[in-house]
Amino acid sequence: MKNGAQISWLPDGKRMHLHHGPIDLVIEIWGSGKAEAYQRAATRFQSVLQELVDELPDLRQPASNNTCFRGDIARVMNEAVTRYLPSFVTPMAAVAGAVADEIAQVISETPNVTKAYVNNGGDIALVLEGEAVMVTDIGGGIARATLHGRGSVRGVATSGWRGRSLSFGIADAVSVLAGSAALADVAATVIANAVDLPSHHGIVRATAESQQLDSDLGTRLVTIAVTKLHQDEVSAALDRGLRVAQSLGKKEGVLGGLLALQGQVRSFGNPSFSKRPIDV
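RE: above sequence
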């Protein structure tokens, strides 16, 4: 279909690529039911973008418990972000994770699927059954997490000023493991926003709309450049983010994560994180 959803296979023949407008998914599925699961995922994907476009004006407004959305994905987005009020967030802070969750849900409902991932630009929803195991990089590649079907992690997301999303903060990367990709997406955004040195002269900021014409952040200032910081400055910025991260830990499905800035790392949650592979 012209200008519609594009569905193809990557060269390895194992991963499906789903693309429509700003949405870009890579999916891999294991198990004897994977052929059917791929088909179901592709079918569901074709209507995702239009559902979001239909409610986009409201999705770009500050999050509110009083807003009612029609679409399943939009409702998940709003439910995810309203858990983080009074932080300034719009439901768009959860869009990548919520889309990944929706496709993962379709896959998980297919018989004989043992595991799968839906990677939406680095925000990942997981399907893990029984003794299934999945390994993923976190913190911009500085650590690796081994996720188990018996565990609770079903979403991984990363945010920071260098990424495709805009950030109020200066974190190189904040990765969060959570019970869903939507929750991980918003938590990573909120924590990354908090990693900051608000009055530092070496941090360059510009309005969000000057960087992305359709940004839901409007005239709010986002980070576009960060100078080389002294180690004590790096530590202070990370500690600001860590305090926010710890306040989210052990509630609302936020299970742990990593904060990274100019060679320093902080972790929160259980278990602790390191630069070595870890099991969760």
